[in-house]
Amino acid sequence: MTQTITAMIQTHPTEIRYDRQLLEDCIAACVECAQACTSCAEACLSETEIDPLRRCIRANLDCADLCTTTARVLARHAGYDAAALAGLVLAACAEACRSCGDECSSHADMHRHCEVCAGACRRCAEACERLLATL
Question: Which Pfam families match (predicted)?
Answer without folding.
Answer: Csp
